[in-house]
Amino acid sequence: MRIIDELxxxxxxxxxxxxxxxGDCVGSVMGxxxxxxxxxxxxxxxxxxxxxxxxxxxxxxxxxxxxxxxTDKIYDAFIVLDCSEERLGEATPIYRKARKKINIxxxxxxxxxxxxxxxxxKRSSTAELLYEMMNPDxxxxxxxxxxxxxxxxxxxxxxYSNTSPRTLQIVAELIKFGFDFSKIVEETFFEKTYLQxxxxxxxxxxxxxxxxxxxxxxxxxxxxMDFYRVTPKDLDGIVNHLQSVKGVDCAIFMYETGTLEYxxxxxxxGKVDVASIAMKFGGGGHVRAAGCTMNGTYHDNINxxxxxIAEQLSHTD
Length: 317
Ligand code: AMP
Ligand code: MN
Ligand code: MN
Known about the structure:
The protein is an alpha/beta fold and 317 residues long. It folds into two domains: 3-190, inorganic pyrophosphatase (n-terminal core), CATH 3.90.1640.10; 194-313, Diaminopimelate Epimerase, Chain A, domain 1 (Roll). It is 36% helix and 19% strand. The chain has helices spanning 23-39, 92-97, 126-132, 141-155, 165-175, 181-190, 194-205, 222-227, 238-243, 274-280, 298-313; strands at 12-16, 44-48, 77-81, 100-105, 116-119, 208-210, 215-220, 250-258, 261-268, 284-285, 289-295. The strands form two sheets. The protein has a six-stranded mixed beta sheet with strand order 6-7-8-9-11-10, sandwiched between helices. Strands 2-1-3-4-5 form a five-stranded parallel beta sheet. A hairpin with a 3-residue loop joins strand 10 and strand 11 (289-295). Helix 3 packs across helix 4 (141-155). It is globular, with a radius of gyration of 19 Å. Bound molecules: adenosine monophosphate and manganese (II) ion (2 copies). The site of one manganese (II) ion has 6 residues, from loops.
């Protein structure tokens, strides 16, 4: 399916993605925005996202993103990328009012929440899926950069198992545009501020292994975030770091979002299906990377997750 086929009569179009937007979310929303501006120059296109991290300022026209969601506007089409309707956050009412709802995603936990839904869990990223729905002749350096960032972030720089031969073919097409991909990978994916590195160190130092050292967990409290002067955006990468410990099959990282409320991130090497666990607690994601929000004390949350993980590990060697 070409995206344009679904937008034929649309004069006003909105694009949106999930709360706490990651690289794939920002890259795919911006990639599609830049693309539609070229393919449909007469259409009025608005982008709604909660404020992207500064590392994404290298994406062209990122300043066009609207992070104020108060609008009475009824759009001809609203395209939700990289999530289902539930994770749109404050943009949900705008989506619900739209004349046509389109949902493009790659999360196995997403049943599809549009009048038209394209959900392909085998795709590395929403950015990869979007590339397939675009006319390649219209892709330019700016669009390619945005899509490249999406793929890089969701594949951990083309090394997670969601990377397919097709992913790499698309990456090859994208880097032909000549942008400085090496700088982009360094500055958006690997580079951390000193404070981000410090809180990562603290989280690693305070981590605990359990279930025969096959699981690892750590937590960052609000007080710690205040102390290190960091926000949730600064905690990206901690859970992946925990998962890279030898012998660990499943890593859990939580940070406090409110009184007895935690945002939980889980990673696995494939022996545990973390998407199915996250879904039990109202979240979702992929087999090897998933998340949810949990209420209760830190220890209660670990206990509840641990029961599910232990159950799954008992079926493995
Ligand atoms: P995280 O580590 O929380 O950033 O997310 C890991 C993966 O799970 C990403 O692909 C997220 O988009 C997805 N994910 C995280 N939280 C949720 C949620 N509450 N519902 C559905 N998917 C989620
Ligand atoms: Mn995402
Ligand atoms: Mn994604």
